[in-house]
Amino acid sequence: MEEMYVSENLSAAQIQQFLQTAMPGLTAFPWEMLLGEKEPMEFDSRNPTHIFFETTESEVPQFPQHVAIYRTPTKDEEARSLWLAQSLSEQFQLNVLVPFTHPEKPHYPFYDIVFQQGVSYLADDSATEFGEPDAKPVRLLGPYPLLKAGFDAFGRLIADIPA
After folding, report:
1. Paired strand residues for 54
2. Cα end-to-end distance, the chain, whole Å
3. CA–CA separation, 56 and 86 (whole Å)
């Protein structure tokens, strides 16, 4: 599963079109499963090219929309989350937060990557009280260059390209 938090609410149609363009070998369906919505009629759980996503209200004040994408390849999920979030940020000119495992501090659970117009920043959410309307914002620590990853039409990692 890939997950990200978006600074502005996007429609299901916008997200669906974005996913179809990013991974054209997969068919993306909006499905608010956690909210009890019934499975889309066209969705076939036996078809490995059928993925779905749902959007929910986030508990992160700066990033009011949570987007979760299901049934993508299980390998390289974090890299794919970062790749999708960066593309989403560039395309819609908004900020996108992705939970991040820092390679030098893998046990510190408060790191994130925030993309601002496609540029990556290391962030820390340790002082953010999630779900509180007056919570402190997620703190940007500074620019953080990432390896540029490439993915094929089915969302499979094909290359790590130095930035």
Report:
1. 68
2. 25
3. 20
